[in-house]
Amino acid sequence: MEGAVDQENIVYGRNAVLELLREKPGSIEKIYFQFNTTHPKLKEILITARRQKLITGKARLEKLSLIAGTTKHQGVCALISTVTYYTIEELLSVPRNTAPLLVVLQGLDDPHNIGAIIRTAEAVAADGVVLVEGKGAPVNAVVHKASAGALSHMRVAKVKSLVRSLEFLHANGIRVIATDMEAETNYTDADFRLPTAIVLGAEGSGLAPEAMEYCDETLRIPMAGCVESLNVSVTAGVVLYEVMRQRLL
């Protein structure tokens, strides 16, 4: 593709990015545009990216030049994923555990949290981490670094709809569990020896109401201090290690 460059998995240039959108949209993690663009081809790229529910962002020309490693980016850069994504069916077809264990992320904005959760999921030998297309931060170099190498071992699935994915898990005998400060059941009282999917919502806003409707159980992590909640990656760590504790008994 003319205008493409292998600079930290970046494709730049209007024609190159547009071709990438047409041929391999699933490989794109995020597209950066220059501010206040009026070029018709850039508008076409933006419309196509939004139609495919890809993550887009605006950047100044200086930042685009820094990302692309050149000033010849023509106002657009695309970040390409280095991760091989699976389907949920593939995660469940060859499970690591007798009772499958998945971690489902609704759309976390902090790549450090995503990486930390992937690191913990790999530490407890989860079967996979599920992400939602177009939601949250891209799986980029920050996620790789925060995962401390775990991303190279953990299978990651990408789905178009969180609700439909939860429906699929239900249909395949997977219990869907979320955490909620208002829940009555303590997380240590749940039976994690059964096939389980732990669903974690976005930072601040938590899990969407429509997703909560598909949860079989909501669990509470007790808080004895002054703070009201834990960081989402810490929540994941607390619950996942309880899963492993029960399964090792």
Please give a quick description of this structure.
With 249 residues, the protein is α/β, with parallel strands linked by helices.
CATH class of the largest domain: Alpha Beta
Please tell me what the overall shape is.
Answer: elongated
* Rg, nearest Å: 20 Å
Can you give the mean pLDDT? 89
Q: What's the β-strand tally?
A: 13
Residue fraction in strands: 15-25%
Give the count of structural domains. 2
CATH superfamily of the largest domain: SPOUT methyltransferase, trefoil knot domain
CATH-derived architecture of the largest domain: 3-Layer(aba) Sandwich
Helix/strand/pairing category? alpha/beta
Would you mind describing this structure in some detail?
With about 250 residues, the chain is of the alpha/beta class. The protein folds into two domains: about 5-80, Ribosomal protein L30/S12 (60s Ribosomal Protein L30, Chain: A), CATH 3.30.1330.30; about 85-249, 3-Layer(aba) Sandwich (Alpha/beta knot). The protein has helices at about 15-25, 40-50, 60-70, 90-95, 110-125, 140-145, 160-170, 210, 230-249, and strands spanning about 5, 10, 30-35, 55-60, 75-80, 85, 100-105, 130, 155-160, 175-180, 185, 195-200, 215-220. The strands form two sheets. An eight-stranded parallel β-sheet has the order 6-9-8-7-12-10-13-11, with helices on both faces. A five-stranded mixed β-sheet has the order 1-2-5-3-4. The relative contact order is 0.13. GO terms for molecular function: RNA binding; RNA methyltransferase activity. Keywords: Methyltransferase, Transferase. Pfam families: SpoU_methylase (PF00588), SpoU_sub_bind (PF08032). This is 23S rRNA (Guanosine(2251)-2'-O)-methyltransferase RlmB.
